[in-house]
């Protein structure tokens, strides 16, 4: 029975849609939407390339063609592959993983601004939108990783038990990316220029993340036996501070025999993954009241 206008409203009938929830309550509400978080990304991926001849094959063809361009320019023409026996496998894994992180962050950044009417119409944990956006890119990443493993085999690697470590290592990258997507979503909801700045930032980060070259070559002499300047030698010490370098290097170490992950890489990857996810979630949640305001 619906109470009339003059009667006292029973406790529990009205809910403040802007009320703050504890992180545990918020996560519980988010868990109730798990079917939505899985079905919507699958539907989005099916629809994304439906008007093209090759359809969803572009999820594989696009990164493969990108690897081909980088291999030609940086491997064959600029010879940055010096010091790497399996440059193709090194490049493929790095490009695929970095591309996932970039695409997922960009999708997360747009998740609030592109769903303004939905936010204003329905009460639900707003975190479902960036989570759903990142989930779509995770689904697209899975077949790409299979292709990366096939490329590793074709380029000379052998299957070992360490390949199984690619699963938890990639999970760390997903956690980190989810945290960054939370931050990007909130910032972009306030400052719409963020989604224009992100591609430029990612382009810079791509070249500074050791995706196209081995950082170890900074400490190696050139073909004439000359060592790089001291300031170049010192650069290698700072690369573990770069989350994309640490996380992609960790993943490469599971598949490529010539890539190792020293303790500082492990420490950096774990701290970045858990730290970014925790900070990003709380940063996003604390802005829950203001999302969708006109």
What report would you give on this structure?
This protein has 294 residues and is mainly α. The chain has one domain. Helix content is 62%, strand content 0%. The protein is built from 11 helices and no strands. The protein has helices at residues 23-31, 34-48, 58-77, 87-110, 116-121, 128-154, 166-190, 194-207, 230-235, 243-255, 263-285. The longest helix has 27 residues, at 128-154. The radius of gyration is 22 Å and the shape is globular. It starts with 22 loop residues before the first helix and ends in a 9-residue tail after the last helix.
Topology summary:
Elements: H1 23-31, H2 34-48, H3 58-77, H4 87-110, H5 116-121, H6 128-154, H7 166-190, H8 194-207, H9 230-235, H10 243-255, H11 263-285
């Amino acid at each position: 029975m619906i109470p009339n206008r003059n009667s006292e409203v029973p406790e529990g009938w009205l809910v403040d849609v802007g009320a703050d929830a504890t992180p545990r309550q918020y996560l519980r509400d988010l868990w109730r939407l798990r079917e939505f978080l899985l079905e919507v990304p699958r539907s989005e991926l099916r629809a994304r390339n439906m008007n093209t001849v090759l359809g969803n094959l572009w999820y594989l063809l696009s990164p493969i063609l990108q690897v081909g361009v980088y291999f030609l320019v940086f491997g064959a023409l600029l010879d940055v592959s010096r010091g790497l026996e399996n440059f193709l496998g090194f490049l493929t894994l790095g490009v695929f993983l970095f591309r996932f992180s970039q695409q997922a962050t960009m999708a997360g950044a747009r998740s609030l601004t592109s769903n303004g009417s939905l936010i204003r119409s329905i009460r639900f944990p707003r975190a479902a939108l960036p989570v759903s956006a990142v989930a779509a890119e995770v689904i697209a990443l899975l077949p790409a990783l299979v292709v990366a493993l096939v490329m590793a085999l074709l380029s000379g690697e052998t299957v070992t038990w360490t390949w199984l470590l690619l699963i938890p290592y990639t999970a760390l990258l997903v956690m980190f990316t989810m945290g960054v997507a939370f931050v990007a979503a909130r910032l972009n909801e306030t400052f719409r220029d963020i989604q224009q700045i992100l591609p430029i930032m990612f382009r810079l980060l791509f070249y500074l993340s050791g995706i196209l070259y081995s950082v170890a070559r900074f400490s190696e002499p050139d073909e004439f036996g000359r060592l790089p300047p001291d300031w170049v030698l010192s650069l290698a010490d700072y690369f573990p501070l770069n989350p994309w370098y640490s996380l992609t290097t960790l993943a490469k170490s599971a598949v490529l025999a010539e890539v190792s992950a020293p303790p500082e890489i492990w420490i950096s990857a774990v701290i970045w993954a858990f730290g970014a996810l925790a900070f990003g979630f709380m940063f996003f949640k604390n802005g829950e009241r203001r999302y969708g305001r006109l």
